[in-house]
Amino acid sequence: MGSESKIVLVTGGSGLVGQAIKTVIDEEKKSGSAEVGNEKWIFCGSKDGDLRNKKETEALFEKHKPTHVIHLAAMVGGLFHNMAHNLDFFRDNMAINDNVLYASYKHKVQKVVSCLSTCIFPDKITYPIDETMVHNGPPHSSNYGYSYAKRMIDVLNRGYAEQHGCRFTSVIPCNVFGPHDNFSLATSHVIPALIRRMDDAVTNGDKTFSVWGTGSPLRQFIYSLDIAKLFVWTLRHYDSVEPLILSVDEEDEVTISKAAEAIKKAHGFAGEIVYDTSKADGQYKKTASNKKLRSLYKEFTFTPFEQAIQDTVTWFKNNREHARL
Ligand code: NAP
Ligand code: GDP
Question: Counting ligands in written order, which one lies closest to the CA of residue 247?
């Protein structure tokens, strides 16, 4: 270790959000910011240790001796991957979260920021959703495994705070997309799936492009570089055990069909978009309020959706060979 007083371990550091945090931290280092000068950042993926395994988790903490943790590592996937693997989502994520938080407690980590998701809220709920509603009813049936495992992070955080005085908290992002996303056809979320499939359609000269479901569900999408900045801010400035929603504004919610049109424009695809209504729509909407975030971090500005889509499509085209396909 150098002269830094904080050692920040990012689990899931090789993924979409982890790589975006790395980009933000590298930019801060380049600009010579005083805050980052006091921090050593370590980004870990599964090759550094399988966090479902208690011994490997302990070894990772013993090796790096973090003072702070951003805990992103998880089994993550889009609607169709969740529908087919609810049990795996539950078991893997329960194991990862229990191991990481227990190791953080044992190693006297000063602060942990873990990650929930707006898709874990109750299915039957009033809108907009806020931070107080995490446990107020069953989640949507399509992703109950992921949802219940994620909700247990909040239970663990409160337990560690009450019994041991730990400063463990969580954030609740809306749908994230950007460079380094998972573009695999079998497991990905909607935006990387459409970006990758439309790239294939352009190459093949297809006349039509199929979007799954009706196209009418609504989603709030946040660019990974924006959520990365908000994670870094949360680690440095947000100390309550209560979860914090990290989302774009309610007015910026878009239909799947509008997202598909933005991707079509960014790709310059000349064909027609059609809807395969034999495929599931999933949750109709999960509109979340970012009022709490807005009250705490007034000056934050989000990247406009179409610009972020364009940047992600450009990144995909330039990096397709190395991307997760
Ligand atoms: P991602 O791109 O799929 O990355 C997942 C990360 O977790 C990777 O670094 C992966 O390592 C690591 N990981 C998975 N299983 C592991 C294991 N058993 N042991 C150690 N590491 C493991 O996911 P993401 O989209 O960045 O998601 C980051 C966090 O945000 C997750 O907690 C997710 O639930 C949450 N979130 C995501 C979204 C979204 O739309 N993407 C929305 C809300 C919340 P490898 O690279 O080595 O596989
Ligand atoms: P969710 O936001 O957690 O439901 O997960 P996704 O990011 O997978 O988004 C699912 C929504 O996008 C559903 O309404 C799907 O019908 C729609 N969708 C349209 N085309 C695709 C596709 O190619 N892949 C995925 N994952 N979803 C798609």
Answer: 1
Number of Cα atoms under 13 Å in the Cβ half of residue 220: 23
Query: Which residue owns the Cα nearest ligand 2 atom 24?
Result: 190
pLDDT in tens, 248-305: 999 999 999 999 999 999 999 999 999 999 999 999 999 999 999 999 999 999 999 9
- CA–centroid distance, 73 to ligand 1, in Å, is 5
The answer to whether residue 309 is domain-embedded is no
* Residue pair 118/129 in contact by the 8 Å Cβ criterion: yes
Residues carrying an active site annotation: 146
Question: Domain for residue 122, yes or no?
Answer: yes
Gap from CA of 315 to ligand 1 centroid (Å): 19
Residue 202 included in any domain = no
Q: Rounded to a whole number, what is the distance in angstroms from the first to the last CA of the chain?
A: 36
Q: Is the dihedral of CA 226, 123, 72, 298 positive or negative?
A: positive
Domain that holds residue 22: 6-179+220-253+287-304
- Tally of domains in the chain: 1
Six-digit token string for 44: 């870990």
Domain CATH for 167: 3.40.50.720
CA 86 to ligand 1 centroid distance, Å: 16
Task: State the pTM of this model.
Answer: 0.97
> Is residue 110 one of the residues assigned to a domain?
yes
